[in-house]
Design goal:
Blueprint (H helix, E strand, L loop, with lengths): L2 H11 L10 H10 L3 H19 L6 H26 L7 H19 L3 H23 L3 H19 L4 E2 L5 H8 L1 E2 L2 E2 H19 L1 H11 L1 H6 L4 H27 L1 E2 L7 H11 L11 H21 L3 H19 L10
Antiparallel strand pairs: 1-4, 2-3
Length: about 350
């Protein structure tokens, strides 16, 4: 066999850098694709627990674990909603304004109508989600711009209802006990969060609408050709997003015994972070409730652990930002993005 024939054979087999050989970048992506995103998130959570435990043994104390669980519960509820918007290939930047508005409305309503404040604020969340979905599907404004605008409107309305934080009267604390009380040593907040998680899981995994949400995020054109009602499904995704934000605002207001017109500001980016850190792709179609659950615990553990071990407060956001960047790098589906050469 001649030398030229040897070289041709090597090229066909992918040796020596000839045609057919995967580049180093392609090899890295191939190996990365073999590891599920949720596996990476679970590994990150395990590493964080080990590091923070070595930094301070009190990290695994019952009190501290309870603190982590309660913060993760709130983040999970709002994150589950944000996840639905991201799964269809969009995003919801309005949840901060909605949470702030629901927070003050809930406390004001508790003073006057008592327990009816709960269904009232849930209906507000559903109606607002339908508004977002209608703007997205009927007016055809991208979700980034549409929800940015509606979120600003809700922030203004929250400040009009109450420009300053408002406290719930002591005579109405019994109403707040629906969330704040505990049974058999387990807080109602954790039980309610578990129920909400199960509802989202069932809807997304075992219903036609849930499968449609995943399909639209994967390929909206093929979804339309398959007979999926695109408008209805996207509307429901945004209704679920706003519902999660409204429930989280109710839980926070109960825990704080009051409402705050700026309460939701921090949860805009934190909810997105919880979704992507858990392994749900920003490009849509990949991920789910379990991913968001892991992501919420990762962020909650990070925030709590950095405080416990004494990480400088000004440096904490840098660490969180780095984790988000790495998470997006590991989950981002580049096949849905045009490549510029």
């Amino acid at each position: 066999m001649s030398a030229s024939t040897d070289r041709e054979t090597q090229g066909i087999n992918g040796a020596g850098g000839e045609p057919g050989t995967p580049t180093r970048g392609e090899s890295i992506r191939a190996r990365r694709a073999q590891v599920p995103a949720i596996g990476i998130a679970v590994g990150l959570l395990a590493v964080l627990v080990i590091l923070f435990t070595l930094g301070n043994r009190n990290f695994l104390s019952l009190y501290n674990l309870n603190t982590i669980a309660y913060y993760a519960a709130i983040l999970l509820v709002v994150g589950l909603g944000q996840m639905c918007a991201i799964l269809i290939g969009g995003i919801d930047l309005s949840i901060g304004g909605l949470m702030s508005f629901v927070s003050v409305v809930f406390v004001v309503a508790v003073k006057t109508v008592g327990f009816w404040a709960y269904p009232l604020c849930i209906l507000i969340g559903i109606a607002f989600g339908y508004l977002n979905g209608t703007i997205l599907t009927r007016v055809r404004i991208p979700s980034f711009i549409a929800t940015l605008g509606t979120g600003g409107i809700m922030t203004s309305l929250a400040l009009l209802v109450s420009p300053l934080p408002v406290d719930a009267p002591a005579s109405r604390y019994a109403v707040l006990d629906l969330v704040n009380a505990s049974a058999l040593g387990v807080g109602n907040l954790l039980v309610l969060t578990a129920v909400i998680f199960v509802v989202f899981f069932v809807v997304l995994r075992f219903t036609v609408t849930g499968r449609g949400i995943f399909a639209i995020g994967s390929n909206i054109t093929m979804s339309w050709m398959s007979g999926i009602d695109i408008v209805r499904t996207r509307n429901i995704a945004h209704i679920l997003s706003s519902l999660g934000a409204a429930l989280a605002a109710i839980f926070l207001s109960c825990g704080q015994f009051g409402g705050d017109p700026t309460l939701g500001r921090v949860y805009i980016l934190n909810s997105i972070a919880a979704v992507v850190v858990g392994g749900t792709a920003l490009t849509g179609g990949t991920g789910g409730p379990v991913n968001t659950l892991i992501g919420a615990f990762v962020l909650s553990t990070m925030e709590n652990g950095m405080n416990v071990v004494g990480v400088n407060a000004y440096f904490q956001q840098s660490i969180l930002g780095a984790v988000i960047i790495v998470s997006v790098f590991l989950t981002f589906d580049r096949s849905k993005v045009a490549v510029v050469k």
